[in-house]
UniProtKB/TrEMBL annotation:
It comes from Aegilops tauschii subsp. strangulata (Goatgrass). It holds the Pfam family Yippee-Mis18. It comes from the Eukaryota. InterPro entries: Yippee, Yippee/Mis18/Cereblon, Yippee_fam. Belongs to the yippee family. GO terms for molecular function: metal ion binding. PROSITE patterns: YIPPEE. This is Protein yippee-like.
Length: 99
């Protein structure tokens, strides 16, 4: 049940084909987090973010994990994954990014 300003988002333990930006503190719906944007290595677009640190104890399970925004991820043929079910962890809470 993760959300971004563009809609649904998914929490992953590991992602591929991305690079990380600089760390910054962001106030999200679940509190203050240190995050870095993650960028597609193919097109350079921001596709989500990585949780570097959670400042509230109850949110520490997110540390080192990645959020991919459903709206920003395309399939190998360029189509969007609008109706696909992912095997992502759907932990409690939701966050918005303030990009």
């Amino acid at each position: 049940n993760f959300h971004s300003k563009h809609g649904k988002a998914y929490l992953f333990n590991r992602v591929v084909n991305v690079t990380s930006g600089i760390n910054e503190d962001r106030m999200m719906m679940t509190g203050l987090h240190t995050v870095s944007d993650i960028f597609c290595v193919g097109c350079g677009s921001i596709v989500g973010w990585k949780y570097e640190a959670a400042h509230e104890k109850s949110q520490r399970y997110k540390e080192g994990k990645f959020i991919l925004e459903r709206f920003k991820v395309s399939g190998p043929d360029g189509s969007h994954y609008w109706g696909v079910t992912h095997d992502a962890h759907h932990g409690g809470g939701s966050d918005t990014d303030d990009l």
